[in-house]
């Protein structure tokens, strides 16, 4: 009886620790220079996309290479509404947020009809192909998207009397949406639906035999991930001030996937950690050497080889080394660390 109580206390301690660290970041970062503040804002926005990938990879067992399509859907929706109609630059900003999420969810609902029927490598390739279709539309549909020139946001949005042209205000707005997204996804993964997704990830056939509608569960997870991808896209447009087909390229989806693997899949907060490490390393290394991509590639390879649970599994890995190389059970599994 004591083991479940200990596990609950451990889980509560993890939640409190994450909340404390996020609160500390929210207090300290606004007092840093503008470059660090902008980098932190981008980390928060892109972390929403990374967490949506983690919902698929870490909890459902689906490796997607098309998540950038939903970010692009939200970005272009925000850009087109702003440049053509001035929509979303005032109190209607909330409406664009909602439309961006619905656009991402709708696109995922359509793509899911084709992708969810496949598994493994076939699922990976279908999501890649579908994502590239959206990139092709953004690149070729010049009259709507501006082609390779993209769209420039006319000005920063305002809502509730707050001007997103101020870096500190933009940071807190991004932080607020990030915190709500983290809380929503955390609650989802701890719900019976989230537990069902974990069961599907571990033993899909067994869950099907037990009477679960496996296809519907995976489809709903796919749509929810698309909605949060759309949300990150709207915020990404207002953070960058420009939307282009570069936001939909394959490398964006690959980056999000690698961030989740680096931080620790099946943890949510690991996706955030991986996103922060990758974006910070990218900015720092690019100022030191022109071949910084190779350094980042080595980091990915070493993590996968020697730390398969990601950075979130590092404490458990250290404990196992101190204990003579014996793993501590569930902590050794990537999807079981730090829900």
Descriptors:
disordered C terminus, globular, 2% strand, 339 residues, two-stranded antiparallel ribbon, 72% helix, 2 domains
What does this structure look like?
- With 339 residues, the protein is mostly helical.
- The protein folds into 2 domains: 1-31; 33-248, no CATH class.
- The protein is 72% helix and 2% strand.
- The protein has 14 helices and 4 strands.
- It has helices spanning 2-28, 34-60, 68-85, 93-115, 120-140, 142-145, 167-190, 192-202, 204-209, 214-240, 250-263, 269-285, 292-306, 314-322, and strands at 151-152, 158-159, 162-163, 242-243.
- The strands form 2 sheets. A two-stranded antiparallel ribbon has the order 1-4. The chain has a two-stranded antiparallel sheet with strand order 2-3.
- The radius of gyration is 20 Å and the shape is globular.
- The model is unreliable at 1-9 and 325-339 (pLDDT under 50).
């Amino acid at each position: 009886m004591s083991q479940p109580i200990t596990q609950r206390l451990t889980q509560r301690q993890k939640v409190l620790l994450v909340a404390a660290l996020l609160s500390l970041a929210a207090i300290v970062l606004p007092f840093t220079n503008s470059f660090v503040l902008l980098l932190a804002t981008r980390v928060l926005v892109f972390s929403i996309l990374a967490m949506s990938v983690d919902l698929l990879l870490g909890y459902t067992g689906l490796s997607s290479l098309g998540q950038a399509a939903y970010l692009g859907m939200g970005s272009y929706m925000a850009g087109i509404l702003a440049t053509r109609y001035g929509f979303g630059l005032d109190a209607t900003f909330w409406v664009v947020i909602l439309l961006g999420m619905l656009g991402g969810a709708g696109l995922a609902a359509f793509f899911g009809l084709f992708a969810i029927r496949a598994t493994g490598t076939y699922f990976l390739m279908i999501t890649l192909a579908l994502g590239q279709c959206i990139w092709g539309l953004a690149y070729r549909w010049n009259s709507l998207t501006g082609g390779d020139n993209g769209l420039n946001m006319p000005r920063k949005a305002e809502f509730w009397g707050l001007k997103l042209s101020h870096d500190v205000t933009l940071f807190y707005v991004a932080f607020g949406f990030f915190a709500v997204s983290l809380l929503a996804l955390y609650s989802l993964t701890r719900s019976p639906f989230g537990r069902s997704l974990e069961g599907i990830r571990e033993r899909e056939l067994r869950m099907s035999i037990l009477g679960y509608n496996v296809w519907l569960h995976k489809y709903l997870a796919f749509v929810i991930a698309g909605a949060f991808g759309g949300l990150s896209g709207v915020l990404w447009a207002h953070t960058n001030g420009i939307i282009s087909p570069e936001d939909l390229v394959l490398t964006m989806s690959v980056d999000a996937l690698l961030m989740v693997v680096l931080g620790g899949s099946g943890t949510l907060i690991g996706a955030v950690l991986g996103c922060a490490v990758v974006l910070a390393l990218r900015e720092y290394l690019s100022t030191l050497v022109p071949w910084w991509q190779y350094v980042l590639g080595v980091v990915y390879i070493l993590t996968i080889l020697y730390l398969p649970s990601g950075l979130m599994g590092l404490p458990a890995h250290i404990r196992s080394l101190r204990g003579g190389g014996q793993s501590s059970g569930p902590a050794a599994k990537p999807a079981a660390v730090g829900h």
